[in-house]
Each structure stands twice: as structure tokens, then as C-alpha cells.
Specification:
Elements lengths: L1 E6 L5 H10 L3 E5 L3 E6 L2 H10 L5 E9 L18 E6 L6 H6 L7 E2 L6 E8 L2 E7 L21 H11 L7 E3 L6 H10 L22 H6 L10 E5 L2 H14 L5 E5 L5 H4 L5 E7 L10 H12 E11 L3 H7 L3 E11 L2 E10 L3
Length: 353
């Protein structure tokens, strides 16, 4: 068995764990900002790395201990022979140069610019981890995120938000503040079973470590672009335009249904009781009208199916959101993190009459 570590946005560990389980991972346990798991071999771990949507990085764990520095020199790192390597450390008071100096493998040397192997050290819940970075880049930096605005979230957080909301590809989805389209584009990619790294295959660090082609079996399952029940709405044309451009780059433009639509008219534009999930990230203050929050919950009464949910991600306005949702029950309220920014996630359902 091979031990893996998926690094996550804090507060989304359960969403990442659920995705890992679907991808065949075992022995899954939550850390704070990461999820530990195991798979049968390195090839399986690389395949998961290619498919994973909600984590920012995956590591093949070679060592975990309260203090890794004391044991790095005893590791079998013979796979580094004849290869260059670089070290990235996120362990407090443990410098990258110090770790590199402890690695003594014949015919291997440090290359910071373009290493064959990227080694990674990190720390979660008081335990230090050391292993191989299988990504080589931040998985949250999607290649389609070109046209952005002031209140954008990364694709990894958008995927977790969809999971928290209870959305899946069998359900209809509305984002009434689509902004640059991250939430709806991630939903479309998931519906088509298209990996977010589909066009980044040459960037994955693991291609220098294995000879097997892990991409082929996954790509065979990708569905052709087609219209889906995913609605990208926004009160501002500039945001609809940005979403369309980003969706075209992601090759899901034909999947989405677009409309420049004020919140007050959502129930006129959409079929009555036809939406399973409303999922959105509140935009910047300048892009909202005073009555938009109450209007979302009012209009949702006519467009949500039975047991439909409203999920809102917001940095501020938590009490305003709760006040506007007076006719709804709070199904879940949690804090998630994007970098150093704490964000609130609230999931609502209509109260039973």
C-alpha cells in the first residue's frame, strides 16, 4: 500500500474525503487542512492526483513523524539516483536547505529550476510529513480562470462548495451571481467527467516518476460537450461575458445556460420548482443591490424543488443572510478558508409548513 496526503482548503476536509472515496482511496482520515489516505500503488495515487478536483496538492508520503528531520537520512531514497530534486518546506523552523543536505543519494543533486523530483515537507495537527509532490503546481489554479473579478474563488473551493450543497450531476443548479463562472464551470466539468487538469498533462510532476499512462483510462470516460441543467445568471453583463469566455476555454461553453438577470426576476425566467440547488458566492458590495439578499430567498420559493437547497459562500454579511432567510432553516453553517481568508458557508432549506 502507498500512503497519500491530499492538501485542502481548511474546512473542506469532508468534501475532499468524499471525493477520494469515490476515486477508490482507502483508510481515509481527516486532518486540519489535509486528508490522509491509502491506495494500492503509486500508479493508483497518480491517477487520483489527475482526477482530484477539490484538493490543492497530493503527496506520496514517505515519512510521517513528530520530527521528520531525525529520520530523513534513514529513508530509502534510491529512486533519486541519477535524478535532480528540489525541496519545498512548509514546516516551521525547518529550512529547505537543511532537508536537502540530509539527502545523500549517489548521482543525485539539487536543481531548483527544473527538478526531476519535487520533495515536500508539511505539518498537520502536530505531525510532520515528508514525501513526493505528485502535482508540481497548485491544482486550484485552473487553466480556464483567465477573466476574473474582485470576488473569485478557486476551483478547488468551488468543488467543495458543490459537495457541501449536496449537488451532483443528476441535479439542476443555479448560480445567480456567477461572476467569472467558477462554480458553474466546475459543475459542468464534473458532469462531463472531465478532469480539471485535462489540458495540463505535461505539467504533472508524476509523469517523471512512472512509465504507465494514467491519463488514457480516465480520458476515455469524458463525455462530449452538451447542454446541461446548469444556469449561469448574473445581474451584470460583464460577469456573464467573463463566464462565457472562461467556459469556452474550459470547453464547457455549450453546457451552460446563461442569462443577464436581476435577482428580482429569477422566478420569471426559470421553470417553477425546477431547481435542485442554488449555489453562489456573494459578489463585491458594488455588484449587489440593497434588496438582492431578501430577493434570493423570496424568489427561490417558486423555483426550488422539494428539499432543494440554497448554499451561500460569503466573507461578510452573515447576519444579513440569516435575517433574509427567516423562512428557511439552516441545514449547515461552517467556516472554510481560502488562503488566510475565512469564509462562511451557509446551507438553507425551506421550513416545513
Amino acid at each position: 500500500m502507498v500512503l497519500g496526503l491530499a492538501i485542502t482548503n481548511k474546512g473542506t476536509e469532508d468534501a475532499v474525503a468524499a471525493e477520494l472515496s469515490l476515486l477508490g482511496a482507502n483508510n481515509i482520515s481527516h486532518l486540519e487542512g489535509a486528508v490522509q489516505f491509502s491506495v494500492k500503488d503509486l500508479t493508483a495515487l497518480c491517477s487520483i492526483t489527475y482526477q482530484l478536483r477539490s484538493a490543492t496538492k497530493t503527496i506520496q508520503v514517505l515519512l510521517s513523524d513528530e520530527s521528520i528531520m531525525q529520520k530523513i537520512s534513514t529513508l530509502d531514497l534510491s529512486f533519486l539516483a541519477g535524478r535532480t530534486f528540489a525541496v519545498e518546506s512548509h514546516v516551521e523552523n525547518l529550512e529547505e536547505a537543511e532537508i536537502a543536505a540530509a539527502i545523500n543519494v549517489p548521482e543525485s543533486k539539487v536543481n531548483l529550476a527544473n527538478p526531476d523530483v519535487k520533495l515536500y515537507a508539511c505539518e498537520f495537527l502536530g505531525k510532520q510529513y515528508f514525501g513526493v509532490d505528485l502535482c508540481g503546481f497548485d491544482l486550484g489554479k485552473r487553466d480556464y480562470r483567465i477573466f476574473l473579478g474582485p470576488s473569485n474563488i478557486k476551483g478547488t473551493l468551488a468543488c467543495s462548495l458543490l459537495k457541501i450543497a449536496g449537488w451532483n450531476p443528476e441535479k439542476t443548479l443555479l448560480d445567480p451571481f456567477c461572476q467569472s463562472g467558477t462554480i458553474v464551470i466546475e459543475a459542468a466539468l464534473q458532469s462531463l467527467q472531465k478532469p480539471v487538469g485535462f489540458h495540463l498533462k505535461k505539467s504533472f510532476a508524476f509523469i517523471k516518476l512512472i512509465t504507465e499512462n494514467v491519463f488514457e483510462a480516465v480520458d476515455e470516460k469524458v463525455l462530449p460537450e452538451k447542454p446541461l441543467g446548469i444556469y449561469a445568471f448574473d445581474p451584470h453583463f460583464k460577469h456573464i461575458s467573463a463566464t462565457q469566455k472562461n467556459a469556452k476555454i474550459a470547453q464547457v461553453n455549450k453546457c451552460l445556460q446563461y442569462s443577464r438577470q436581476d435577482i428580482d426576476w429569477l422566478d420569471i425566467k426559470l421553470e417553477q420548482y425546477g431547481i435542485d440547488c442554488i449555489v453562489t458566492c456573494l459578489p463585491a458590495e458594488k455588484d449587489m443591490k440593497k434588496g438582492d439578499l431578501p430577493a434570493i430567498f423570496l424568489r427561490a420559493k417558486k423555483i426550488l424543488k422539494n428539499n432543494g437547497t440554497i448554499t451561500i459562500l460569503a466573507k461578510t454579511k452573515q447576519q444579513e443572510i440569516l435575517d433574509a432567510a427567516k423562512d428557511y432553516k439552516v441545514k449547515e453553517h461552517r467556516t472554510v478558508w481560502q488562503g488566510k481568508s475565512a469564509l462562511s458557508v451557509m446551507v438553507f432549506m425551506l421550513k416545513e409548513k
